[in-house]
């Protein structure tokens, strides 16, 4: 039986500009997906997210995938490539307005 965990990284507040999510230790997992629920928007914001990896939770690097961009409300996902190592986070840029986000990471392994 596989283990499954869903954790809140950023919860129900407005975001704009650049930020990184709280890091998440996921070395035990075989796969991970970021779920981004956009509940409200102000302006015409565009969300761009880049998965980042770390061996120690302090030093970070992009995972080599292309950034994912979207706009509008609703549920959006960013899949993490396999063989991601230990710690994960999402580097985010929101330009053109603000987004009220509820951002999770779901892992199983």
Task: Provide a quick synopsis of the model.
The chain has one domain (4-108): Jelly Rolls, CATH 2.60.120.380. 0% of the residues lie in helices and 71% in strands.
Topology:
Elements: E1 4-20, E2 24-25, E3 31-54, E4 61-62, E5 68-71, E6 74-79, E7 87-108
Antiparallel strand pairs: 1-7, 2-7, 3-4, 3-5, 3-6, 3-7
Structural notes for this entry:
By secondary structure, this protein is an all-beta fold. The chain contains no helices and seven strands. The model has no long low-confidence stretch (mean pLDDT 96). Strands 1, 2, 3, 4, 5, 6 and 7 form a seven-stranded antiparallel sheet that branches. It is globular and about 40 Å long. The protein has one domain: Jelly Rolls.
Q: State the CATH class.
A: Mainly Beta
Largest sheet: 7 strands, antiparallel
Number of strands: 7
Secondary-structure arrangement, i.e. CATH architecture? Sandwich
- Overall mean pLDDT stands at 96
Entry keywords:
seven-stranded antiparallel beta sheet; 0% helix; single chain; 109 residues; Jelly Rolls; mainly beta
């Amino acid at each position: 039986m596989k283990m499954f965990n869903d954790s809140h990284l950023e919860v129900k507040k407005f975001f704009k500009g650049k930020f990184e999510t709280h890091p998440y230790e996921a070395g035990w997992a075989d796969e991970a997906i970021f779920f981004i629920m956009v509940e409200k928007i102000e302006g015409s914001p565009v969300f761009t997210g880049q998965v980042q990896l770390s061996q120690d939770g302090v030093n970070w690097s992009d995972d080599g995938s292309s950034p994912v961009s979207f706009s509008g409300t609703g549920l959006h996902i960013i899949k993490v490539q396999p063989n991601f190592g230990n710690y994960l986070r999402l580097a985010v840029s929101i330009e053109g307005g603000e987004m009220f986000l509820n951002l999770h990471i779901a892992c199983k392994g």
